[in-house]
Amino acid sequence: MHRLIFVLTLLLLSFSTYSATLADYTFDDPEKGEEFRHVIEQMRCLVCQNESLAGSNAELAVDLRNEIYEMMKAGQGKDEIIKFMVARYGDFVLYNPPVKPSTYLIWFGPIIFFVLGAFALFRILRRKSLTRETVLSADEQQRLDSLLKQTSDSKDADK
Amino acid sequence: MNRYLLFSIPLVVFAVIAAFLYKGLSINPREIPSPLIGKSVPEFSLPSLEQSETQISNKDLLGKVYLLNVWATWCVSCRAEHRTLVELSRMGKVEIVGLNWKDDRGKAQSWLRQLGNPYMVNIFDKKGRTAIDLGVYGAPETFLVDSQGIIRFKYAGPVTHELFNSKILPLIEELKTKG
Question: pTM for the full model?
Answer without folding.
Answer: 0.74
